[in-house]
Design brief:
globular; two-stranded antiparallel sheet; mainly alpha; 316 residues; 14 helices
Length: 316
């Protein structure tokens, strides 16, 4: 039991911080531009594939730097020549644009790298066990993933709260006309924020790519849960995205590890439950089997009882 708690906590913390890496960029974009970027998870996928391709030629570590920069530049160009042009048509046009962009990126990835997973390997420098506990080893690369995610969170928080750049970004969020009157190029700030947000998603892809499966379906599998994190935390709230990421990461990781059904719980209190007596298999389903839908149940509860999210300041 202690082994389950320790390793599930580590895995939940890791998964939550990776979700935050993705959700932070999406939150920044929404905070400044009011755009829910449906293609955000696709930039995460691009980061993983760019990191893989760069690692083939020059190794993993250059890819860790170059892939997010390249994807960030692509994101900035998308904002400058795509989103900015459709912005005048309203939010529906922006959502449709990013929705279509997600399909385009997925098709391009399949055309270039194929439909099967690529062989994105853990770098040799971190291909060992960090520690062994209860005869179970924990990979060093997973610890690296966790430390990188924490470092990005701290750096992003300091950037937004302690620097002049962060002051301009937060001011442009609340009073864009005033910031423009003071001589700052607000459209350029928007473009850079969109690029940085996409770059953060790509960084998550480079970090997670070797440990998880790098394949064309990785964006579609992670995209929905990403929006759950942003809505539960509160649209536009970086702190809310952090709390929601850890909360969902922990809940889902522990749920996957629990092979207990409602019938088992009732049996402990002396009630015998069978498929025939209850008229179906629902009572026999384990927590691990229903784990994928738990975050969405949390989303429904938040929308019912707190539409602003855990730490949001606007209605979702």
């Amino acid at each position: 039991m202690l082994e389950l708690i320790i390793f599930s906590s580590l895995n939940g913390l890791l998964y939550g911080m990776l979700l935050f890496l993705l959700a932070s960029g999406l939150t920044l974009i929404f905070s400044m531009m009011g755009v829910l970027n449906f293609a955000h998870a696709s930039f995460y996928m691009l980061g993983a594939y760019f990191g893989f391709q760069i690692s083939v030629y020059v190794g993993y570590w250059p890819g860790l730097v170059l892939a997010p920069l390249l994807v960030g530049v692509i994101g900035a160009l998308v904002e400058r020549y795509g989103l900015r042009r459709v912005h005048k048509h309203g939010h529906v046009a922006e959502l449709l644009f990013t929705f279509g962009l997600a399909f385009i990126i997925e098709e391009l990835v399949q055309m270039i790298w194929g439909r099967i997973p690529v062989d994105y390997r853990v770098p040799e420098l971190l291909n060992f066990s960090a520690f062994t506990l209860f005869a179970t080893t924990y990979p060093a690369f997973r610890m690296f993933m966790l430390l990188m995610s924490v470092a990005v969170f701290i750096g992003l928080l300091l950037l937004l709260t302690r620097t002049r750049v962060g002051l301009i970004i937060r001011a442009a969020l609340a009073h864009p006309n005033m910031v423009g009157a003071l001589g700052h190029n607000v459209p350029l700030v928007f473009m850079l924020v969109f690029g940085v947000g996409c770059g953060l998603a790509a960084l998550a892809g480079v970090i997670a790519g070797p440990a998880l499966v790098t394949q064309p379906a990785m964006a579609a599998s992670l995209g929905p849960i990403l929006f759950v994190v942003v809505v539960v935390g509160g649209l536009g709230s970086l702190q809310g995205a952090f709390v929601a990421s850890l909360l969902i990461g922990m809940i889902q990781t522990f749920a996957v590890a629990l092979n207990v059904s409602l019938a088992d719980v009732l049996a402990r209190f002396g009630f015998t439950v069978t498929r025939e007596s209850m008229g179906g298999d629902l009572w026999m389903a384990t927590v691990a089997q229903v784990a994928p839908i738990i975050p969405y149940l949390l989303l429904v509860l938040v929308l019912i009882f707190r539409p602003k999210g855990l730490m949001g300041d606007r209605d979702t």
